[in-house]
Amino acid sequence: MTTSTPLPHDLLWLIDAPGFARANTLPAWASADWLAQAPLVVRRDGASAGRIPVGLRGTTRAQRHAAWLPATQVARVATPRMIARQARWRDHPRRAALPALAALARVAPLLDAAQANWGVTGSVGFTLAIGIDVLHAGSDLDLLVTAATPLSAELARALAALLDDAQARIDIQVATPFGAFALREQVRTGHRVLLKTATGPVMSHDPWQPLP
User: In which residue ranges of the chain is pLDDT below 50?
Assistant: First the structure.
């Protein structure tokens, strides 16, 4: 059982999948057998003592369900950065046929060269973490860049250039100490972004400053 506090986008495996399934009203696709192999995704929500806000994922985009997980149910955690460091896309049998994986193979060296603190989320991260392929030709590549301080101009330019990938849609979320925002939105607006926080989305001109 992990003792650290999971962060949004972390993947959590259950200690007792049948027990969790019995304790919650879940959709039919979220069976105990599925939950025994598929991790839950930490989501942003208000604080709850001893419970973690999570999202359940199935094999299709329509299969999503929000729930709360007792912290004592966490067997192990995989962070987006851990998934990136494992680089399992290199051995994926469909890496050449799936634009999202081909894009990841291209951008990973660029992100490392830019010294970004980055990880893989979304359906690509889920697939790489569990070894069950839920990807299709139209799957996006979702990346998370964690930055305790504002991005340098050089890193911001390098990340923005990735958004124009011709073969796959790449979405980059930047996590600050106060929330997370979509880089694509910041590039479009110049500064103002919708900052996702544990208490809900708020507009921010500087996502590295405390909210009023």
Answer: 1
Amino acid identity for residue 36 in this structure: A
Structure tokens at 85: 């460091």
Distance, in Å, from the CA atom of 16 to the CA atom of 126, rounded to the nearest integer, reads 20
Nearest to 130 by CA among 11, 6, 9, 10: 11
Sheet holding 51-57, edge to edge: 64-70, 51-57, 40-42, 11-14, 74-78
Q: Give CA angle at 121 (16, 50), nearest 5°.
A: 40
Is-contact 109 44, C-beta < 8 A? no
| Distance separating alpha carbons of residues 97 and 137, to the nearest angstrom | 8
Chain-centroid distance, C-alpha 64: 14
Domain-wise residue ranges, the chain = 11-78, 80-204
DSSP at 124: H
Is 164 designated active site? no
Give, in order, the Cα–Cα distances in Å from 52 to each of 89, 102, 139. 29, 33, 27
Q: Which amino acid is at 52?
A: I
The 10s digit of each residue's pLDDT in 84-140 is 999 999 999 998 899 999 999 999 999 999 999 999 999 999 999 999 899 999 999
Q: Is 208 helix (H, G, I), strand (E, B) or coil?
A: coil
Nearest to 24 by CA among 86, 84, 74, 66: 66
Q: Considering 45, 133, 140, 165, which one is annotated as catalytic?
A: 140
Annotated active-site residue 142? The verdict is yes
